[in-house]
């Protein structure tokens, strides 16, 4: 951890720049509706005060870093290998142990890998490998929202919130259970502490992957590969949630559950390959084969206590107060699936210059097969490509000696895929138990399964892509330029589309969409210095992609992708716009003529929806382009690797910023606090002279009357100058713009451009003389760092730019996250 968002450290708890007084005249923070929660109080100066909970403390800001610790990762690998001209064997063992930045988070993994090859006679080669990993994870760190202490302390807690008191006293030391004492040990705070430190989630995973390749060399130019592999995954999870009532009895918390699952999959492939010269100018390489992939199914079961525990701190299903709850959505058999395929691919090369490539594949999938056997379960997809290495024509012409290599290429291909298992069974009419009539006669009852309308003619997804490119190398390969332009259209994606509630269903399954991706990729590399003992290589990558919705479905022009602030902001797929367009009716309402923000009578901003302007487009979640630069330097036995990544454009919405601003916890909320920070002098309703006034920018909306005067279209500054309004106090201003009830969500949607020093690695290979003395084949020492520092960011208050809360398509929101983290590693590689 090396930094947090920009929390302000100048003002503490309260809503007044002066301290309240105790009966005996001591400075205090009162326990009222504002002081312990809002950071609009007096300036920090370290004096001794009586805090809102009655405890005397030094008046100073807390350090949010106290919520975390330095994580530690240890990775040890041992490998042994040997063999002869017919047999090779290699075995490796890797032990990984990690302690997270939250003390309750741990991870351990033991990985074993064995590979053996064997020549059988002159024709047969066998290659067998098996990988087995046992992993145990404990309490994965929450990435935001509830369970993120960073989010909790930014939202509704003042900057002098006593973190040490929280850790020491969130458990009731007298009665047991969770402390529920206002203000610093109130429920919303100790809720999160209980979720993080009194909830223990242990998950164990066993993963086995075995593969066998048998290659028969039929002739020098023809061989047959038969491959088989199987994958087995077992998961066992134990969930312990301690009771939070007196004596640790169950109250809001108190639960135990067990979950186990086991599933297997397999694949068998046969591939016949030929490589043969056809005369002196032509060379043919072609392969044909097929495979079958099977989801072999398995089972899962989740059972939980219900209603809490009979006896505290006994974690067993038998300790459930009520009947054990079996989660039907996570219990039962895993469905089986099957995908069969036949394919052929190859290339024909003329004089090592012109290469024609092609492929054809046909799939048959069970996921598009309906229960009665019909369906569009068979689909094919071809591809073709052509490349020309034109530098072959120029290699004997001295005028083009600067060109080391040149190739032009073009390709067109189609890919296809099925859908999720059981999608073709959605909306079926099924037996749904029995109905007993008044005569005690049991009658079978049939109904639709679920509230989603099925589709009896689902089609496979199809994506077609066209690409052209060039690969140019100069000056003995010291400069390389590779450029590609592409256009990809994806159609017939299977989605669930929401339906009007009056239809009697909540969604329907459809084939929808034509999503277009087009862009350009550029790679530029150079070797500025190349000497015997020193070499420097630099590489630049640039990608610009545009993702546009061409069509969705007849009568439908928009589909929600992801949400933030409840449903206040959405990212959508909207026809004619970017995939991931961000819209909100909680944006600023603006004057149509001037574009100025519109104000209400009290100085808060009109939301666009409330003002009648509807949803506003706030931007796109998708970046304009991404770039990177890698530099590799070698000097004798030393090496240096440096990587810088950049992302330009794209919007991020931050709930942490919104609510942290409401409570005055970020540096951006220092504006207007006093004259030094741009505050305006004013007299409040109690006749107190203050200098924390803010003049909101914007003009009053239509039909706004103040003191009998129509101020429609008048700026707030003019209204103050005419004596119609007073400046808005800093607390009221930030609460108005950022609270749940009146906040403008657009205020916390901002550009997410960043430049990051992604990785730095320094290594040293010990010389041969040292290796001889130590009887080693190789010895390398390496010091590396990942995610070193952000060199530039545009997020407000340095909200962590890569802390997107969701992994859903179109995700754009940050909710709490964690501190900025870098990883530093020291490794030693020894070969015997």
Textual characterization of the structure:
The protein is mostly beta strands. The chain contains 7 helices and 44 strands. The strands form 9 sheets. The protein has a 24-stranded mixed beta sheet that branches. Strands 26-27-28-30 form a 4-stranded antiparallel beta sheet, with no helix packed on it. A hairpin with a 3-residue loop joins strand 11 and strand 12. Helix 4 (655-662) packs antiparallel against helix 6 (730-738). The protein is globular. The model has no long low-confidence stretch (mean pLDDT 94).
In terms of structural class, how would the helical and strand content be classed? mainly beta
Biggest sheet character? 24 strands, mixed
Shape: globular
Straight-line N-to-C gap: 37 Å
Strand content: over 45%
Percent helix, as a range, is under 10%
Oligomeric assembly: single chain
- Give me the count of strands: 44
Mean pLDDT: 94
- Model regions low in confidence, pLDDT < 50 over at least 5 residues: none
Counting DSSP H or I runs of 4 or more residues, the number of helices is 7
C-alpha Rg (nearest Å): 33 Å
